[in-house]
Amino acid sequence: MRSITLNCYLSLVSFGICLTTIGPALKEIQGEIALTGGQLGLFTTALSIGLIISVLTTGVFINRFRVKSVVLAGQFLVMSGLFMFSVMNRFPVGLTAFFLMGLGGGLIEIVVNTLISEIYAQKRTSALNLLHGFFGVGALIGPILMGYLIESGFGWRLGYEIVALFSATALILQLLTSYPKKISSDRIDFSDFFKILKNPYTLLLGAITILYVGSEMVMNYWSVFYMELNSGITKITASSFLSLFWIAMTAGRFLCFVVAKKIGGKKLLISLSFISIFAFGLFMFAGSKIATGGSIFLLGLAFSGIFPTVMALGLDRFPKALSTITGLLMTFLGIGTLLFPLFIGVISDILTLKAGMFSILIFTVMLTFLSGMLYSKKVGQS
Fold it and tell me: Which of 184, 187, 221, 276 is a good FRET partner for 38, with 20 to 30 A between their CA atoms?
């Protein structure tokens, strides 16, 4: 089980790098391929469509094929998408590359979350926070790597080639690992799917997930570009600040691994949501580099434990349908990733990028309100 756990961690490291490499490269990609803000936002839309399709069908794949085959397929698709994006010179090719990354990432996410949930069923909230901490490890590597390569004159394409090679290495290591043939409760039953989906508790968790991940992906995708345009911060400094965000996300998840044991999931969720309002407000009105960096770090801490905690609450609520609730929550995650970066890109074309970024403050307030509902009421317990 130890080797399986380590490979689950490795898979999320590789997917974390995959998702966060794009942000520091947006300005250069826009200049080279001549894209609008809305078109730039479509890369994550393509990824999200692939992710949603993948998470809704992964249960079927696991039911027909071995778990190892599904993990390998996911890693191969991520690797292929990264290589394709590194050589793309036309917008449709880039969209296809991100679609492949989304397909692969969905396969990876469903399998690793379900495996860890089963292996560590008695301490699920803590175990999932720890698992997603390793996503953060990968996520903080991406911006530093890309920012350094661009500032040093190597270009953004080399960054994607390096990340693709890392994904290939993860694929080789997974080939050498023994996985269980099946996961118990591993099939997404669509009769249960719609029954669980209609439960108010699920809808509340879904809305929290959409607001959280949408806000997180906006920071990941647009914050470097925003800091370059509106704060006069250099690319390497802005990329370092984005990595600081992911350092805080990673450290926060390891911290939430401990805190969740003491205060429980619902109290942890509302506490983190409150902090996110203050942190994002500080980021938007920061008047210095120190304030900008500090607000980004605090926002990373606030966001760190939200999704793993939501996932654990959902799995605890529906323990006999682990893959079904995981697939649902991953679908909500995909919806947030699909809508928000594109929304910010469209707003930046119509108004300004700053106006688009400011709207995220409203979404963090909504996130906190919904977390308060979850904390104060027995939603969907009948």
Answer: 276
